[in-house]
Structure formats: structure tokens, C-alpha cells
Amino acid sequence: MLTMPNDIRLEQIVESMDHVLKAQARIYMHLAREAAERFGRDGERSIRLGLRAYGHWRGKEMQEAHHAAGHPVNMETLLRCWDNASTYVAKDTIEGEGRYTPNDVEFDVFHCPASEAWKDSDFHQMGHWYCDEFHQAAARTYHPDGNVTIHENLMKGDDRCHFRWLMPPDAPKLDPGEPTEMATRLGDDYVASSEIDGAWKALKRSNRLLGGHYFTCTVPIIERHGEEGRAAVVAALKSWGAERGRLLRQRHEGRGVTVSLEAFWSDHDLPARIIWPVREIEVSDGRVVVEIDDTPQDRAFADHDHAELGALWYEASYPAMAEAYWPGTLAHWELLRSRGDETNRLVLERQS
């Protein structure tokens, strides 16, 4: 069971949100670039199909979770109970200055970690594809009469994203039926007992979305391009992992943190220790072994029968990340829940 640590601080959660949101953006970026470079226009088609699948997946999960939590399915609920922490980090303008009615929601977003990650990598066009394809698919899946416009967009060079989410005034009331076990479980993550609990649950939801973003974008690449598509996914995971390692090292050096195996894990880019229950098995200068019994991405892989892709996510990205973080470091997953084990066990070692 995932529980919030007693000693966690709100600023730690908010900082982790930024890292997770940028990790989401970058995994899409690496998958998109690899598919486009290898398969041309057909690869671009696979990317767009993946973004639509991601929107359908999130729209359906939000619809079912909000219904399970007792909320009506309309545009106001969708945005007040958005799944990703992107709305939390921009809540001053989204909540403070936005306009909300059940069928019409309008607000501006000036701060978007995803756009920052994409701009840093000159990923403007495909970044805009994400905004266009994902949001429309999510709105229409959440409610068949849902719609969204984003006529001003950070990825087009504007100083904001201007969102307007709409439903016709006479749109029929939607009843998704009796909540499933998964919907009830996900719905619990929209009920907060305090500000810090709400922030922690937003981070937890975002961590799940990282896993979902990966498999929804990966499936069309593999299905449409076969073994070459799978090779493209592996290459993208390795380049994503290597970028994560370089950025983590930069962060540690900027803070005066000594680069080490222990620091790689104790001050990780994903929410290890904040969300993931981490158990240290062995810690020394040359070898670190940790176990993680549960993570939101593992639950997403299991909920949607993507264990094989889940194992690939770990096995391809982490060796590249460890090597980029500290050259000469080996990373190996001895155990993985996605392979049927009871826990995830990561071994980090320095080459002799």
C-alpha cells in the first residue's frame, strides 16, 4: 500500500511534481523523435495515434474515478479534479483566475513544466501535437459532448495556453454505471484530507500517468512497425534514461551533493521515498541494493495488462541512466513485479 511519509514537506512534493511532469514530457519526446526518424511520415502517424490513445485512456480513467468519488461527469469536474499535477503547479491562475460552470470552463496557463522541457530541446512542433491531440481525445472520452480549444499555446510561441472546455447546455447526463474496483481505487486519490495530502495524491496520480503515457504511445509504434518498432522503443528508453542521468547529476552537482550510488537513489528524479516505499538492502560505496514493493507505474502496467512493456521500461532505461549519471556504474533489476516477482529489486554497482 502506498502511504504518505510522516516527515514529508509540501515543498518536497511540489519539487517532485516538476521532475515527474518533465519526465512525462521527455519520454514522449524521445519516443516521438525515434519513431519519426526511423519511420518518417508513417512514424508521425504512430505518434499521433499514441497521443490519442493517451487521451482516451486518461479521459476514461478520470470519468470512472470521478464518478466513483461521487462527482458529476461534466467539464467543471474534469478540470477541478484533473488527474495530472500540471494543474496543481499552475493552480494560482487556473483556480484563482479561471471561470467555472458545469458546461463551460476557461483559464490561462502560464507555467507548464512540459513546455519548459520541450523548449529546452527545441521540440516545438511535436510538443504542439501533444497539446492538440491529447486534450481533445481526453475531453471527448470523458464526456461524448466534451470539447476543448487552445487557440493560444506556449508551444506556438504564445506567452500562455488559453484553455476553454465546453459542453452543450443540453448535453445528456452521463452515468458510467457501478464503479469497478479500479475506479473506486483511483477515485480515492481525488479525496484529500489536507493541502499536503492533496498535493501528495496529485503527485501519485502523475506518477501513474508517466507509466500510462509510455505504454499508450509505445503500443502503436510496436503494432504498426513490428520488431523495428520495438527496437525504436528500446532506443528511445535508453536515450530518455541517459538524459535523466545527466540531468540528475547536474542537479546534484548544483546542490553540492556528492555523486554516489546512494545519492542516485536517495535523491532520485522520480518520487522514490516520497511515493515509492523503498527498502535499503545493502548500501556501500561500491554497491547499493534497494527494493520497492509498489509504484504507481507498476499498478498502471498491471491494471492494463502491459507487464511486458513495464519490464522493458525498467530494463532499458535504468542501465543507461546509471551510466550517464556516473560513468562506470552498472544497474540491474534482479527482481521486477512486471516479470511476476513480488517486489522490484535494483542493484547498482561500480565496475572494478
Percent of sequence in beta strands: 5-15%
Whole-number radius of gyration?
A: 20 Å
What summary fits the major beta sheet? 4 strands, antiparallel
Ends: how far apart?
38 Å
Strand order of the largest sheet: 1-2-4-3
Which range best describes the helical content: under 10%, 10-25%, 25-40%, 40-55%, 55-70% or over 70%?
Answer: 55-70%
Overall tally of domains: 2
Structural class: alpha+beta
Written description of the protein model:
The chain has about 350 residues and is an alpha+beta fold. It folds into two domains: about 10-215, no CATH class; about 245-350, no CATH class. The protein contains eleven helices and eight strands. The chain has helices at about 10-70, 75-80, 85-90, 90-95, 115-120, 125-140, 180-190, 195-255, 260-265, 295-305, 305-325; strands at about 100, 105-110, 145-150, 160-165, 280-285, 285-290, 330-335, 345-350. The two termini are about 40 Å apart. The model has no long low-confidence stretch (mean pLDDT about 95).
